[in-house]
Amino acid sequence: MGKRIPLWQILMVLVFMVTLLMYTIVVVEGYIHIALIISGAFAAIVAIANGYKWSYLEKGIINNITNSMQALLILLTVGMLIGTWIAGGIIQTMIYYGLMILNPNIFLVATVLICCVVSLSTGSAWTTAGTVGIALIGIGTALDISLPMTAGAIISGAYFGDKMSPLSDSTNLAAAMAGANLFDHVKHMVYSVVPSLCISLVIYGILSMGHSGSANVDMSDVTLLMNGLKDNFYISPILLIPPLFVILMVIFKIPAMPGLFAGALLGVVFAVLFQGGDLGQLIGITMYDGYVSETGIEFLDALLTRGGLSSMFYSSVLVLCAMVIGGVLDASDMLKIICEKLLRFSKSTGSLVLIVLSTCIACNIIAADQYVAIVLPGRMFKQEFEDRRLKHKNLSRCLEDAGTVTSALVPWTTCGAYMSSTLGVATLAYLPYSFLNLMNPFISLFYGFTGITMEKMTEEEYQAILKQRELDAALAAA
To answer: Which of 30, 36, 235, 417 has the fewest CB atoms within 10 Å, measured from its CB?
Structure first.
């Protein structure tokens, strides 16, 4: 153990990390993995200069990685599930029936709901915006509806699904950083996301009034997509059984990894029975490399070519790299010192939630990356939530309510830049109409100050955490 590191040195480490991340993202337009590792190395140098031994810091890193292994295994399992569900026509069926609700008379409301369905099916706001989002932009133009309004509706729906889908990497990451069970996390987000969605739909419904009489509506993109799905895949309500299986899995609290793997195998069965898939191809290639769509329809192929174990390598390695700097910051008590300073202003659960939400938004603005906005606050405030006996799912929900949804509202983040370039609408133009994204942090803050839905740990759960801390400390000292 070394001495207490001065605050100015800790701030120097954070400034170094943020600067390197922003340089990598904005200037180089590269991957942030190495930037996190280099930042971890710099943090280790500062810690060693203050008397910490490398062997102690290394154990902290390894312990951090060990604690993240369950989340990594779930991420990899989700990759396999996505690949087999597309091969089985399951995701295509969800998208097809989602597109059937498109009604020009309530275009903005329908846009949100369609994007909800597609994003829930795929677990990706980016994929949703880059496929059906582009088609909906074209329809909105034909309807003479404001492009920023349409883009805002697309993003609201896309991020609802991105937050609520067990297939989403950000959903898995938030649960992992907070130490929450994946399905407990998803169920707990219902309290903040569903009210945000309902209020958003009311507002979009009001905005849609006056736009319903437009003639010459070009539905060709949506028609092409629906016909492409119907012509190339077997579409039937029976293919909705696997998603229902996942829902039942959540209800009956089946452990995430075996349940999701069972869902992936169910996708293999459906692919063989309904899509004429080859069993050897599915197990030997699709579950690893994902599904490759070859319909000849460009935006349909872009939507459906994804999944597989390998598709989760980016997120999985990102978690490992984040654990490097997280382990150093933890072992050297840098995170603890920062939290002590911030938590001086936290006298209640509400103020604690406010600090977490503000930190997530600040990370999006400063570090320009959604993953950093989930990982860093998650590592910083996990112990404080435990000390106040607040269940882990309270923290994981806060991470998503601010870290995930606000990432698309900052022009220079990866999410903001992608949405702007893909939809052809400036970030600051669609920002006022992204109602779900704007309201989510405030609803989360409401729960924090009122205490509603902020569930407490049982005595057994809290004692188990204390025992785990003692074990971690013993391993680090050994």
So the answer is: 30
Which residue bears the tokens 């001495």?
3
Q: Which of 13-17, 76-80, 142-146 is predicted with the least confidence, judged by mean pLDDT?
A: 142-146
CA pair distance 328, 349, nearest whole angstrom: 28
Q: Measured between alpha carbons, how far is 453 from 192 in angstroms, rounded to an integer?
A: 10
Per-residue pLDDT of 414-451, as tens digits, reads 688 778 877 878 888 999 999 999 999 999 999 999 99
C-alpha–C-alpha distance, residues 148 and 327, integer Å: 42
Residue 126: other Cβ atoms inside 10 A: 18
Q: What is the pTM of this model?
A: 0.70
What's the pLDDT tens digit per position in 153-176? 999 999 998 889 888 888 988 998
Distance of CA 326 to CAs 2, 152, 241, 402, Å?
Answer: 17, 34, 40, 20
Please answer whether residues 86 and 304 qualify as being in contact, where contact means their C-beta atoms are separated by less than 8 angstroms. Answer: yes
Rounded to 5 degrees, φ, ψ at 300 are -70, -40
Query: Rounded CA gap, 64 and 57, in Å?
Result: 11
Sorted by where each begins, the domain ranges of the chain are 70-312
CB 377 within 8 A of CB 359: yes
